[in-house]
Amino acid sequence: MVLMTTSGLLGTSVYAGVAIMQLALLAVAWKLGQREAWLFCLGGIAVLALLSWVALLRRRHAITGTPTSRIATAAQGYVELQGQGLPLDINPLHSPLTGVPCLWYRYQVEQKKNNDEWELLEQAESHTCFVLNDGSGQCLVDPEGAEILTHHRKRWNDGDCRYVEWTLRPQDKVYVLGNFVTQHASQGLDASADVKALLAEWKRDQAALLRRFDLDHDGQIDQREWALVRRMAQHETEKRHRELRQQPDLHLVRHPPAGLFLISNHAPEKLARRFLWLAACQLTCFLLALGYVGWWWQRAA
């Protein structure tokens, strides 16, 4: 699930979708005008509002209840990080529609039909990792599956088509809530298995194996020569393992097994206030819907 932005912070998102569904139910009830239709639609509005209220409060609690960690000292597991967003390499990702350098993009293209409705023609988003640097260290951020809130949004029309693009830009101050894992370069090394794999690799190229180890040039590897082959494989495996142990650890933030995975270039305080405001709106909607259900019920009694 990806949370996009339109009017500054939230817009065409799962929450806007809930609001659209609620308005659609209200329109259906108004059009039909029957008591049963009103009761059914208002009940649906109330259920949607209650579920949204709970989800929004959980998101606010995740933001306000998770202390900010430093990458260099972050514990393994669910963390909150803030830092500068950087591309993974020298050549950053570019958005497909505008071509601007970015860390992440999402876009959609819609076409206006004869009935003045908009039909979705194309949409896509990137899943390329980017780097987060908080001064104490760096980590990779895998945006796949994240709710992404960004103030970089561009919308324009060209003929009967409408284009919308959201991006995270290099040098943005990025806020991340997710699962922090450290992968050691030497993690999972198995000397015996790696020696066997290297021997199997050498065996596949018999010509090269004979050139290196057929000391008596009789066209085959005898027991004495095979012992040399094994010693060389062990030596090369040990060398590779030493090099791997000297490499730095790789830190990565990705989708947690459970909980909110959020990436944003908004300050967390602003996000928490907006989630609280939206939760209050949904709670109000829930109470109003229940009130109208009660009023319709009494009216019919």
Walk me through the structure.
- With 301 residues, this protein is an alpha+beta fold.
- Helices cover 43% and strands 25% of the residues.
- The strands form 3 sheets. A 5-stranded mixed beta barrel has the order 1-6-7-12-11. It has a 4-stranded antiparallel sheet with strand order 5-4-10-9, with no helix packed on it.
- Helix 2 (35-65) runs antiparallel to helix 6 and helix 3 (191-204) crosses helix 5 (223-246).
- The longest helix is centred in the C-terminal third of the chain and has 33 residues, at 268-300.
- The protein is elongated, with a radius of gyration of 29 Å.
- The relative contact order is 0.18.
- Mean pLDDT is 82; it is low at 1-12.
How are the elements arranged and paired?
Elements lengths: L13 H19 L2 H31 L11 E10 L6 E2 L6 E2 L1 E9 L5 E8 L4 E4 L4 E4 L5 E3 L2 E7 L2 E8 L4 E11 L7 H14 L1 H8 L9 H24 L3 E5 L7 E3 L3 H33 L1
Parallel strand pairs: 7-12, 8-13
Antiparallel strand pairs: 1-6, 1-11, 2-3, 4-5, 4-10, 6-7, 9-10, 11-12, 11-13
What's the order of the H and E elements?
Answer: HHEEEEEEEEEEEHHHEEH
Low-confidence stretches: 1-12
Within the CATH hierarchy, at the fold level, what is the topology of the largest domain?
OB fold (Dihydrolipoamide Acetyltransferase, E2P)
Q: Compute the CA-based radius of gyration.
A: 29 Å
Number of strands: 13
- The chain-level structural class is alpha+beta
Q: Report the average pLDDT across residues.
A: 82
- The top level CATH class name of the largest domain: Mainly Beta
Strand content: 25-35%
